[in-house]
């Protein structure tokens, strides 16, 4: 049994009751993923599992045996930031920075959902291709809270990084 964290196989926790969040932070010392509410309400702990966003505080680490877990530390390609990371810097999509890793991971997962055609609560036509308007982005990112006021920069960063990604 092994977890694949940022491309490397790691042993699961000895105690099967350990959350993925605690395993990442306490055992593996990957402290980019933040513990906010520890109840799944704030999104600070968002990571990607096989490209889909999850709340790591609500997940047991042993549930992800053999699956690809990507944290904020695993997004960059060497010294080259992921386009969403670069956009957060360009648009000042952070102030205190606490929610930023979860926001970035969630944005990447959200973009993949939109590419698959998954509608949101504000999608006008459930059968149409998803257009990521500001309202769509806000709705889809509503599970990730920013308490310091960088919300507009976050939305701008996500929107612009998705436009850049689509053009590439």
**What is the straight-line distance between the termini?**
37 Å
CATH architecture of the largest domain: Orthogonal Bundle
Strand order of the largest sheet: 2-1-5-3-4
Tally of DSSP β-strands: 5
Q: Kindly identify the CATH topology of the largest domain.
A: DNA polymerase, domain 1
CATH class of the largest domain: Mainly Alpha
Number of domains: 2
Query: What is the chain-wise order of helices and strands?
Result: EEHEEEHHHH
Largest sheet data: 5 strands, mixed
Structural class: alpha+beta
Categorize the overall geometry.
Answer: globular
Low-confidence stretches: none
Helix tally equals 5
Kindly state the mean pLDDT as a whole number? Answer: 93
Radius of gyration using CA atoms only: 16 Å
Could you please describe the fold and organization of this structure?
There is one protein chain. The protein is an alpha+beta fold and 168 residues long. It folds into two domains: 3-74, Ubiquitin-like (UB roll), CATH 3.10.20.30; 83-167, [2Fe-2S]-binding domain (DNA polymerase, domain 1), CATH 1.10.150.120. Helices cover 33% and strands 10% of the residues. The protein is built from five helices and five strands, in the order ββαβββαααα. It has helices at 20-27, 83-90, 100-115, 134-140, 151-167; strands spanning 3-5, 8-10, 46-49, 52-55, 68-70. A five-stranded mixed beta sheet has the order 2-1-5-3-4, covered by helices on one side. Helix 2 packs across helix 5 (151-167). It is globular, with a radius of gyration of 16 Å.
């Amino acid at each position: 049994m092994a977890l694949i964290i940022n491309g490397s196989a790691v042993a699961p926790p000895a105690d099967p009751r350990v959350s993925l969040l605690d395993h990442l932070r306490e055992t593996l010392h990957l402290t980019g993923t933040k513990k906010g509410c520890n109840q799944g309400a704030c999104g600070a702990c968002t990571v990607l599992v096989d490209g889909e966003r999850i709340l790591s505080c609500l997940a047991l680490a042993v549930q992800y045996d053999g699956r690809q877990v990507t944290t904020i530390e695993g997004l960059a390609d060497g010294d080259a930031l992921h386009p969403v990371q670069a956009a957060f810097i360009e648009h000042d999509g952070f102030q205190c920075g606490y929610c930023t890793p979860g926001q970035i991971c969630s944005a990447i997962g959200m973009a993949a959902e939109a590419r698959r055609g998954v509608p949101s609560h504000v999608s006008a036509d459930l059968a149409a291709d998803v257009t990521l308007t500001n309202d769509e982005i806000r709705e889809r990112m509503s599970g990730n809270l920013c308490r310091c006021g960088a919300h507009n920069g976050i939305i701008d960063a996500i929107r612009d990084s998705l436009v850049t990604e689509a053009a590439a």
